[in-house]
């Protein structure tokens, strides 16, 4: 089978969605003529025209408002926000409206909006281009949050997000865009939202993460395995709605859990995971639930040291030692 | 450049047919009737916090009657008159202001969405809704409304710029009532007229005497026609005054003088239109009384409908968060249901 990187897989999903459903529109800053700053939408405007794939003025709140209005009127907008850290000007649209319209209209106004945004660090982007604001989004009722960890998953999850009747934030780890290639099936397929995956099984401990942290967890698991320690790795994939059953089952099996995320530690989504484990699997725990996360500081703009911020296999292994020796 | 304020009634002009003029007056009178009743109900504890529009009927009804029923209304929270005149049933509006979920789902046949509470966020959404019509081959125009204070928000500027760039069929009504709760216009902006900002977006801007129903109606009709023909958006500024408090929780005596309020009371849009109709023999005390009787009867009927709405169930809190309930909503639903 052919291999694709994440950029190509996302592009292929957008291409298929545009071809399948004429209500689908793709827009944002630079997505039209340029094909996006990461070239995710390259070639789509030429193929589908300026009506279906278009550039917007440089205004994130306007983009989100436009997407909401288009969905209200029966379209299926797929908006791109150039970097997840640029979502902040649009927070009023997101927090006050995107997730709330179905609820406040008692079901009359559903918003099948997808908002795609690259997130996270690891590739020496300029300041404020490496934020991981998934906890803010997950703390917004009425929206779903999906973070794929591979090209094959990204394609099917994005197509499912576009088919979904509710707003979905689709965060793409910048580190993965061109960081690795994987076999991706041809043609149109969807993968279910709201399902976590167990990528690897082992009895010593359970590593839980998503998006760009999945390869970090797998690397740590591989190193541990060479030392005879087998761990379970869970890729959450969808943060909202959360697949709590798979999460808790995986933790109950091992009695030890480490949550890995690259956003700032305090109040991050990993804190929610730790709380769910405390609520649902406390009796099984043989060690405290640990978090391996970004430090309590802004993502550092200092490229010589930024790799100290983002969790890596070494830090995951240190946490693993800690839970195993508790 | 000096902007002209479009007005007719002040000059004794009446460029409108009898039928349209009477329709305007009736819809305005009906709106005022609702506003007065709503204030009474609120004082009786039979309505939640309410935002009256008294004094702004010409601006809202003038726009509403310029629309077709296939057009969309995207209102802010002071637009009950706009909603009523566009066909929202009175009992739905009462239940909305009663914070009863049955009033929050507007009927399918009414092309209006729930009022916006955050300021100016409706502006870019109205643009999206307008473009959706174009994609779908519908000729709907979107009318959206905001106050003078709201025009200071970023979303107002982003939305107008988007509308201009995409040539969206939208009519933006600014009801300039002089105050953002307590902050007067002079502390909100340095421009004389908000409509002047239109030039900055490259779209037409028009100022009307907002207490002159004929002026609002005729200019709104032009703007709607332009939008429907594909000629893009218009910024329509209506100069008006809110005769009542900001909401039932507000005390305007803390920021406005009685003299100022009296001045504007004499410019009451209802009295002005009624006066002009009476001068032309189109209206009199008898017709007014017949209309009020009709409105009283209609309101009693609608209030009874609102009162008959079943008590909300606690589990409704987690319904309609998503199309399909997620596991977290499902769990909460079971708990809330057991609480009932």
- Major sheet strand order of chain B: 1-7-8-4-3-2
Q: What is the alpha-carbon Rg of chain B in Å?
A: 20 Å
Class computed from helices, strands and strand pairing of chain A = alpha/beta
CATH superfamily caption of the largest domain in chain A: Thiamin diphosphate (ThDP)-binding fold, Pyr/PP domains
Oligomer: heterodimer
N to C succession of SSEs of chain B: EHHEHHHEHEEEHEHEHHHH
Count of discrete domains of chain A = 2
Radius of gyration of chain A: 19 Å
Mean pLDDT of chain A, rounded to whole units?
A: 97
Task: Please tally the helical runs of chain B, counting DSSP H or I stretches of 4 or more residues.
Answer: 12
Cofactor (chain A): thiamine diphosphate
Organism (chain A): Thermus filiformis
Keywords (chain A): Oxidoreductase, Thiamine pyrophosphate
GO molecular function, one term (chain A): oxidoreductase activity
Task: Write a structural description.
The complex is a heterodimer of chains A (326) and B (340). Chain A has twelve helices and 14 strands. Chain A has 326 residues and is of the alpha/beta class. Chain A has two domains: 2-184, Thiamin diphosphate (ThDP)-binding fold, Pyr/PP domains (Rossmann fold), CATH 3.40.50.970; 197-325, 3-Layer(aba) Sandwich (Rossmann fold). Chain A has a seven-stranded mixed β-sheet with strand order 3-2-4-5-7-6-12, sandwiched between helices. A five-stranded mixed β-sheet of chain A has the order 9-11-10-13-14, with helices on both faces. In chain A, helix 3 (60-72) packs parallel to helix 4 (91-98), helix 9 crosses helix 12 (313-324) and helix 10 (244-254) crosses helix 11. Chain A is globular. The mean pLDDT of chain A is 97. Chain B is α/β, with parallel strands linked by helices. Chain B has two domains: 9-309, Thiamin diphosphate (ThDP)-binding fold, Pyr/PP domains (Rossmann fold), CATH 3.40.50.970; 315-339, no CATH class. Chain B contains twelve helices and eight strands. In chain B, the strands form two sheets. A six-stranded parallel β-sheet of chain B has the order 1-7-8-4-3-2, with helices on both faces. Chain B has a two-stranded antiparallel sheet with strand order 5-6. The radius of gyration of chain B is 20 Å and the shape is globular. The relative contact order of chain B is 0.16. Classes of the chains: A alpha/beta (326), B alpha/beta (340). Chain A binds chain B through residues 23, 25, 51, 56-57, 59, 61-62, 64-75, 77, 89, 92-93, 96-97, 102-110, 141-142, 144, 165-166, 194, 240-245, and chain B through 72, 101-102, 104-106, 108, 113-114, 117-118, 121, 123-133, 135-136, 154-155, 158-159, 161-162, 165, 319-323, 326-328.
